[in-house]
Write a structure and sequence with these properties.
This protein has 397 residues and is an alpha+beta fold. It has 13 helices and ten strands.
Length: 397
């Protein structure tokens, strides 16, 4: 494997680094400290990043996007996350769903949805899966239990589907304009055989956004509740075939043959956070004096810095390998393993950074504290025991 960056990859890396340093980082803490969930969001940073190509990075060039490879995407995610993890995720959240449109939707659906997405700097995408009574069982459902998994119901009436139910903790729900929605179209079949994916615009009759969730970490990144009350969705908005689950649709359009982009996304984002934490800790240890000498001269501080950098560089190697495998269509369980590894690494590295900043006995640095809160999010995304069992089953195939 040759991880020497091409000129194009280096260009995207430098563009993302400049944007993170000059535009994202200066607003990061201020947005994080807003009290209201909706107040943390800033459309201006979305517009600025969109004009640089960060919202449409994964859209093929023939459809007006940048058409970058996975290595480039991983690099950009990590660089943006050095500025702010949640802002990086706001941009990359669009990559997997815009790619899904270009890879699996019909030409007519691409014209209706992909072209407006590319043209509008404030057009964000999302996907509704989780529900109040269905979360982990959507990712690892019992094969023979029709009652397990999501409950949002869709019934066909002529050329329309009527959706009733709700989704919760949906990324970009309060700010998105188009969503992939999974709904039960055969309540008597197990999840994988009775679920259909729909494209649902924000202005769909009978569809509205409910509560916006206030979180301790990833404050900028918006999560909300979706309410469907006889929502009318045209049959023309069905993605793939009726009663074909979201996993089958994504695998059919996935360039890696099944390794889901979301695993690489989380690992690359964590890499950016860990890089930021390492830089913060090293700067603090070099500049702060304790007992008449730099904090860095304490052996315990040196050991902590070594641990942080060792884990971060191991994660960097894992991320680059997974991105390379995605680009070369190498099928393995490494994406899931990298995501699981990133969950452990980001939490340990950010906690050590916070610990180093507290070694002087002074008040805790607010950014160091923010990185810890952001890192906790990984345990609730997909790095939990269900995901680890899922990866283990793949290893056993």
């Amino acid at each position: 494997m040759d991880f020497i960056l091409s000129n194009e990859q280096r260009h995207w890396q430098m563009t993302a680094r400049k944007f993170a340093e000059e535009d994202i980082r200066p607003i990061s803490l201020a947005r994080d400290e807003k009290t209201g969930a909706s107040e943390t969001f800033d459309w201006e940073i979305v517009r600025k990043g969109s004009k640089l190509g960060f919202r449409t990075l994964a859209v093929p060039k023939e459809w007006g996007g940048e058409g970058t490879d996975f290595v480039t995407q991983a690099i950009v995610m990590a660089e943006l996350a050095r500025g702010d993890s949640a802002i990086s995720k706001t941009f990359s959240q669009n990559w997997k769903w815009s790619h899904l449109i270009s890879a699996t939707c019909t030409e007519e659906q691409k014209e209706r949805f992909l072209r407006p997405f590319v043209a509008d700097d404030t057009f964000l995408l999302g996907k509704g899966i989780s529900e109040p009574s269905a979360g982990s069982d959507n990712r690892l459902p019992p094969a023979d239990d029709p009652k397990a998994g999501l409950k949002l119901k869709a019934e066909r009436r002529g050329d329309e589907w009527i959706l009733n139910g709700e989704k919760c903790f949906i990324a970009n729900a309060p700010v998105g304009k188009l969503f992939f929605i999974d709904a039960r179209t055969d309540p008597n079949a197990p999840l994988r055989q009775g679920t259909t994916m729909f494209l649902v615009p924000r202005d769909t009759p009978g569809f509205r956004i409910g509560k916006v969730f206030n979180k301790s970490g990833w404050r900028f990144y918006q999560y909300g509740e979706m309410i469907f009350e006889n929502a009318r969705v045209p049959h023309a908005n069905v993605v793939g075939q009726v009663n074909t689950s979201d996993m089958k649709v994504q695998q059919a359009g996935d360039r890696t043959g099944g390794d889901i982009f979301g695993d690489l996304e989380l690992a690359a984002n964590a890499l950016g956070v860990c890089t930021d934490a390492c830089e913060m800790a090293l700067h603090h240890a070099r500049t702060v004096r304790q007992g008449g000498k730099p904090l860095f001269e304490q052996q315990m501080i040196q050991l902590k810095l070594n641990q942080m950098h060792m884990l971060t560089e191991a994660l960097r190697s894992f991320v680059m390998r997974v991105a390379w495998e995605h680009d070369h269509k190498v099928h393995s369980a490494n994406a899931g393993l990298a995501m699981n590894f990133s969950t452990d690494v980001i939490q340990e590295v950010t906690e050590i950074n916070l610990d180093i900043h507290g070694d002087t006995g002074c008040s805790i640095d607010p950014r160091a504290e923010k990185l810890v809160r952001d890192g906790f999010i990984w345990s609730h995304l997909a790095g939990d025991s269900v995901q680890r069992m899922k990866v283990a089953r793949r290893l056993a195939r």
